[in-house]
Amino acid sequence: RRRRPAVPHEGRLRVDVVVLVSAAAAAAGSPVGTLPSDGLPDRRCKVWLNIYDINQTTSHITPLLLKLGLGAFHCGVEVLGDEWFFAWGETDYSGVVWNEPKCHQVHVFRESLCMGESALPEDEIRMVIARVMDVWPANAYHPIHKNCVTFAEDLLVALKVDQPFPAWARGAVDAGKCCVLAPLANFVWRWVKWYCGRESEEQVPFARAQ
User: Fold this and answer.
1) Helix or strand or coil: residue 180?
2) CB distance 97 to 11 below 8 Å
3) Among 9, 22, 78, 156, fewest CB within 10 Å belongs to which?
4) Residue 83 β-bridge partners
């Protein structure tokens, strides 16, 4: 069973602190998201889509999969120095977590695409991240309908970037939605969740016995 590469609460705390500081500044009469004290407009933040191969094996066959329109990737969105992505979990805690850009602990970094600049000021970017953390619970993950790829695309839209999400990055996800593969994907995913849940239940008595 794959370990979570980051702890959701750490990312949430990191965002909440900044959002609270911004709100406090606004309440004190120091508007955020307008003109700073030097009279210059807010700097625009660049946003990157970091794309990973699932593992070393798939990295060797990715060129073939891309030709077939079946590219399978992990995606993370890099903004303000952190990379945000969506991961599966068994609880209703947020599945949105973060890691150092281009440094996922499981997947193999492939390339980074500049998606342009966000139309939002920095404080609003952090608020967007806080909002998506609330609406992407870990147990809502689905390999076809709600995954790291669909999360990355939704987050990029919310950040109002210049460039569209690359269609080739969601090849396998789109293919899995067809009427033939969708039932199979759903069955396999239900089995995986059942198996992982059973494994967790078996480990609890063992841990208590220690």
Assistant:
1) coil
2) yes
3) 9
4) 78, 99
- Name residue 29's amino acid: G
Task: Enter the DSSP assignment of 111.
Answer: E
Give how far Cα 20 sits from Cα of 28, 34, 168, Å: 12, 17, 38
Q: What is the tens place of the pLDDT at every residue in 144-183?
A: 889 999 999 999 999 999 999 999 998 888 777 666 666 6
Check: CB of residue 171 under 8 Å from CB of residue 66. Answer: yes
Distance CA 175, CA 182 (A): 9
Are 129 and 158 spatial neighbours (Cβ–Cβ below 8 Å)?
no
Q: 41-58: per-residue pLDDT in tens?
A: 567 899 999 999 999 988
| 23 close to 115: Cβ distance less than 8 angstroms | no
In sign, the C-alpha dihedral spanning 57, 62, 65, 69 is: positive
Helix (H) or strand (E) holding 9: helix 8-27
pLDDT number for residue 1: 42
Contacts for 127 with CB less than 8 Å, ≥ 6 apart: 19, 22
Sheet holding 96-99, edge to edge: 96-99, 82-86, 73-79, 46-53, 108-117
Gap between the Cα atoms of 20 and 23, Å rounded:
5
